[in-house]
Amino acid sequence: MAPSENTQNDVHLSSDVPHTKSKPSTTAEPATERAMTGRTNGETDATTETKDIKKSVEQTMEDKLSGAEIKKRAKAEKAARRAQVKQGKPVKATKTEQTKPTTVAAKPGQDIAKAPINGTIGESTPTSKGVHKRTGSMSATSQKAVPLRPTHPQITPMPVQPQKESKNVALFGHLHGHPRRTTLMGTGKDVHPAVLALGLQMSNYVICGSNARCIATLLVFKRVIESYTTPPQNSLTRHLTSHLSPQIDFLVSCRPLSVSMGNAIRWLKLEISKIDPDTPEAKAKADLCEGIDSFIRERITVADQVIASSAAEKIQDGDVVLTFAKSSIVQQTLVEAHRRGMKFRVIVIDSRPLFEGKNLARALADLGVEVQYSLTHAISHAIKDATKVFLGAHAMMSNGHLYSRVGTAIVAMMASELDVPVIVCCESIKFTDKVALDSIVTNEVAPPDELVPSEISPSPLAMWRDAPNLQLLNIMYDVTPAEYIKMVITEYGSLPPSSVPVVHRISTNT
Predict the structure, then answer these.
(1) Contact indicator for 16, 36 with CB cutoff of 8 Å
(2) Which secondary structure element, helix H or strand E, spans residue 367, and what is its range?
(3) Is the pTM of the predicted complex or chain greater than 0.70?
(4) Which residue, of 74, 185, 272, 395, is most buried by count of CB atoms within 10 Å of its CB?
């Protein structure tokens, strides 16, 4: 602190030096003015020198202060400014604030390089009268321009597209999977050509009916096995099963497997797993092909003959037999009864969109059987003349319910209402251990466009996909409760619906 005291003493000494004034004289004015001018210049130089000394002393003191002392002094200055603001006095900027650069954002559309630096706008800095004491913002009365925040460009929201209406019925939404395959596009190279042809035939209803599809599938798999060659370092028992997987997947993509097809495929895989690894490949393939022929003959062909023979005995002279759609086993039963010389009449009830009953009515009429054909909307009138109802089956569930072509349940319920016995003809290969309580959980949904009539042009439903609040549902099957069924005729004999699980267990173990 010694240099500071000496400097202050020097300043006091220089400022306290007395100056004598001479008397005014008119004759010595030029000399007096020169003396006065010299004295003023000397005082100015002394004052400037004093300020420079003060600045150097303060700079030296700041250099010697520690960080804590500088922070303490800044807090004291801040407290002093707050006190002056409360008292309404103007606040002078401290040295720190005077030397602190202020960042000013450029105006919208102004180049950043041309923006004012160190808080200046134009050529001068606004005074404390036009600046807020604490925030530094300009007052309303100030004539200076105010720096503005850069405005972000307004983002135009994207137009919300209306959600497309779903054309799937919500109640059956879980059944709408991949659309049914109708072309060969995207098929794998591992799929056999015979399987490709069969899949398209089933998709287009060229091969329709549970028995027909099951027999065609087994015959196609027989061709797949005949053309199969076991790769090196593999065994037929393990590799052939994986080779059949893409064939099955393609058939499923064309149309879901029937219960009889599922049972037949499980039997075939079981037979493949039973092959001894030491058996030559040619013999193993021959045994599998022979087993497929035996399965078709025993479980379907012979079973149908036994069922038709047993069911034909239920038909008497003068009976009026009512049936729904077309079932191959029911057709064999009616043909067998007619061959035995029975005189009866047949009522065929049919439904859209497949109209399978037309083929049955035509086949029976060609044999000389009297046939009446009508659609389901006339069932209440046609059922009045019926004495027996024969129905086919897609599957018999473990709880005795009948799973068959949609519309079967209506026929069975109408017959039960009029005390007309309902007889179901079904092979044991169609039995399953599954339980069905309704036709919603498990079913097959066909393409809705099949419901659009092609014989009417233009059809009212032609543009149904573009019509709002319009949905088409084309389900393939329904479930008939066991209480509406009087008897189930199988190759094991005639039995009540409650005995279905027993027959299924016997047929599976044999």
Answers:
(1) no
(2) helix 357-367
(3) no
(4) 395
